[in-house]
Amino acid sequence: MNATKPPVPVPLLMLAGIVAISFSAIFIKWSAAPASVQGMYRLLFTSLLMLPFARPYSGAAFALRRKDWLLLGASGVLLALHFLLWMGSLKYTSVASSTMIMALEPLFIMLGAYILYKDRSTRAAILGLAIAIFGVVCIGWGDIGLSSDNLKGDLLSVGGTVAVAGHLLIGQKLVARMPSYLYSLIVFISAAVVFAVYNLLAGISFVNYPPREWGIFILLAVVPTVFGHILFNWLLQFTSATTVSMNILGEPVGASILAFLLLGEELTGLQWTGGLLVMGGLAVYLLSGRKKAVKVHESLQSAS
């Protein structure tokens, strides 16, 4: 993380990112293409959008060490695995249930940050996280485990959550010494290549999709990826991976509301209450977690 502040307050940028990523599950539900194809084109189109602006970072790319390239590759593999599992989960379970499980990501982040960086959270931060996690459980309570398909979707979402937690932890270490834009571009290209190899080996078509599907692929690249994931990667310069991950807890709220409006997925009073609890937990965490960012930065520097 850098000592400087972003031009726009971090909470506002977090909110914009949450709204953007909330559309991800909606676009995925609208698509009939395999999850691996959606993920491949989502990352490929995002990389193509980023490439024209990558020239200023060429020097930083040549300065990367072998260890950095290995970590970048690992981060790309984990990102591809995250998209493959989580996007696949939406074929079997509801938006509320899948995004609820994804919101458990901070638990894995906190555990990983403690193991790798000796990063301890404050009691107030843990309280905020507990409130938000309880709210997320309320959101998906009515859907989880109702059938074997739901259970399969739940397990896929858990696997995707573990993968993205590892991706974020690696990202936090790398952006401490390289531009976040370069990090995002290399990781997205790496993940797209992983998807391409997977689709090739699985015999999945690369091109036989109607125009509507191509439109969805582009929307997935522009809305939740550029204005969601890239924004969150950029924010790793100014705040910790745990804080970034915590704010993604807002996704189940936004995604569930959009699923109700656009997909007709009903929400119960318990789920609406859960949404309020999530936002309350976010507020508690944000108010208590700012001082911790400096300590995480120091740990990252000593681990480099």
From TrEMBL:
<dbReference type="InterPro" id="IPR037185">
    <property type="entry name" value="EmrE-like"/>
</dbReference>
<protein>
    <submittedName>
        <fullName>Multidrug transporter</fullName>
    </submittedName>
</protein>
<feature type="transmembrane region" description="Helical">
    <location>
        <begin position="154"/>
        <end position="170"/>
    </location>
</feature>
<keyword id="KW-1133">Transmembrane helix</keyword>
<dbReference type="GO" id="GO:0016020">
    <property type="term" value="C:membrane"/>
</dbReference>
<feature type="transmembrane region" description="Helical">
    <location>
        <begin position="12"/>
        <end position="33"/>
    </location>
</feature>
<dbReference type="InterPro" id="IPR000620">
    <property type="entry name" value="EamA_dom"/>
</dbReference>
<feature type="domain" description="EamA">
    <location>
        <begin position="152"/>
        <end position="285"/>
    </location>
</feature>
<feature type="transmembrane region" description="Helical">
    <location>
        <begin position="270"/>
        <end position="287"/>
    </location>
</feature>
<feature type="transmembrane region" description="Helical">
    <location>
        <begin position="214"/>
        <end position="236"/>
    </location>
</feature>
<comment type="similarity">
    <text>Belongs to the EamA transporter family.</text>
</comment>
<feature type="transmembrane region" description="Helical">
    <location>
        <begin position="69"/>
        <end position="89"/>
    </location>
</feature>
<feature type="transmembrane region" description="Helical">
    <location>
        <begin position="248"/>
        <end position="264"/>
    </location>
</feature>
<feature type="transmembrane region" description="Helical">
    <location>
        <begin position="124"/>
        <end position="142"/>
    </location>
</feature>
<keyword id="KW-0472">Membrane</keyword>
<feature type="transmembrane region" description="Helical">
    <location>
        <begin position="182"/>
        <end position="202"/>
    </location>
</feature>
<feature type="transmembrane region" description="Helical">
    <location>
        <begin position="95"/>
        <end position="117"/>
    </location>
</feature>
<dbReference type="Pfam" id="PF00892">
    <property type="entry name" value="EamA"/>
</dbReference>
<keyword id="KW-0812">Transmembrane</keyword>
<feature type="domain" description="EamA">
    <location>
        <begin position="12"/>
        <end position="139"/>
    </location>
</feature>
